[in-house]
Amino acid sequence: MAENHRKYSLTVLRHGESEWNHDNRFCGWVDVGLTNNGLAQAQKAVEALVEEDIGFDIIYTSVLKRAKETAEIIRDGLEKAGLVSNLEIVEDWRLNERHYGSLTGHNKAEMAEKYGKDQVKIWRRSYDTRPPPISESHPFYDKIHNNSALTVVPKDQFPDHECLKDLQERAIPYFEDIIVPQIKSGQRVLIVVHGTTSRALVKHLEDVSDEDIEEINVPNAIPFTYELDEKLDPLGDKTYHADKETVRKAIEKAASIGKKRK
Ligand SMILES: O=C(OP(=O)(O)O)[C@H](O)COP(=O)(O)O
């Protein structure tokens, strides 16, 4: 049997800590920025990439600023280190975080207290259970709908709530149609996205079952790389560009429902 050979690689990065990651609030399509810690985390990701001499030819990201800001920090840092020049950043709404419906803006620990931890885990991590839809009277409905960055979303595709499956159905066709041809043409690709978009990519690339994906959490700001064969199947596990203990703690944090507001 022919031996599988590494043909391509692909790196994925969830953005640095956002204001609402810090506040432990469901965020989704609300366009919050990075905290100072998030900015520093993105710089650390740059350092890790530079240390391993990893450059890219193109970056894909969402239209939400927490991902775009992270992508820009990576681009600027790699340019400064001389690893890349004129690195293009392509943004598309189909790589956005899933829309968190009526949970948007709510504190995760408070929702767990109100609805139970099991229900909140289903809303956060199940493959195909949507959170309840956002209503027009929701405090963040207008903020989302008046965001000029989101005018690119076709009206008939603008969601009121999404589960991982919904996100998968918009993000994976984008990945297959737009990103895969770049990878196959030999471009070194970095995808800077969100927790749920990263989980969709992990599920797709690793062929994770609908049940097993519930236990997979993606940490903020730690890039990970797949080595892929000619069919874009991963050769072995993904490699995180950070030490094991840092990765373990960051994954634990991403899984946690965190603390109530003080
Ligand atoms: O907007 C979100 O994801 P993001 O911080 O990756 O953009 C979610 O609120 C993260 O929360 P979750 O980990 O409960 O899915």
From TrEMBL:
<feature type="site" description="Transition state stabilizer">
    <location>
        <position position="194"/>
    </location>
</feature>
<comment type="similarity">
    <text>Belongs to the phosphoglycerate mutase family. BPG-dependent PGAM subfamily.</text>
</comment>
<feature type="binding site">
    <location>
        <begin position="14"/>
        <end position="21"/>
    </location>
    <ligand>
        <name>substrate</name>
    </ligand>
</feature>
<dbReference type="Pfam" id="PF00300">
    <property type="entry name" value="His_Phos_1"/>
</dbReference>
<dbReference type="InterPro" id="IPR029033">
    <property type="entry name" value="His_PPase_superfam"/>
</dbReference>
<dbReference type="GO" id="GO:0016791">
    <property type="term" value="F:phosphatase activity"/>
</dbReference>
<dbReference type="InterPro" id="IPR001345">
    <property type="entry name" value="PG/BPGM_mutase_AS"/>
</dbReference>
<keyword id="KW-0324">Glycolysis</keyword>
<dbReference type="InterPro" id="IPR013078">
    <property type="entry name" value="His_Pase_superF_clade-1"/>
</dbReference>
<protein>
    <recommendedName>
        <fullName>Phosphoglycerate mutase</fullName>
        <ecNumber>5.4.2.11</ecNumber>
        <ecNumber>5.4.2.4</ecNumber>
    </recommendedName>
</protein>
<dbReference type="GO" id="GO:0006096">
    <property type="term" value="P:glycolytic process"/>
</dbReference>
<dbReference type="GO" id="GO:0004082">
    <property type="term" value="F:bisphosphoglycerate mutase activity"/>
</dbReference>
<keyword id="KW-0413">Isomerase</keyword>
<feature type="binding site">
    <location>
        <begin position="97"/>
        <end position="100"/>
    </location>
    <ligand>
        <name>substrate</name>
    </ligand>
</feature>
<dbReference type="InterPro" id="IPR005952">
    <property type="entry name" value="Phosphogly_mut1"/>
</dbReference>
<feature type="active site" description="Tele-phosphohistidine intermediate">
    <location>
        <position position="15"/>
    </location>
</feature>
<feature type="binding site">
    <location>
        <position position="66"/>
    </location>
    <ligand>
        <name>substrate</name>
    </ligand>
</feature>
<feature type="active site" description="Proton donor/acceptor">
    <location>
        <position position="97"/>
    </location>
</feature>
<dbReference type="GO" id="GO:0004619">
    <property type="term" value="F:phosphoglycerate mutase activity"/>
</dbReference>
<feature type="binding site">
    <location>
        <begin position="124"/>
        <end position="125"/>
    </location>
    <ligand>
        <name>substrate</name>
    </ligand>
</feature>
<feature type="binding site">
    <location>
        <position position="108"/>
    </location>
    <ligand>
        <name>substrate</name>
    </ligand>
</feature>
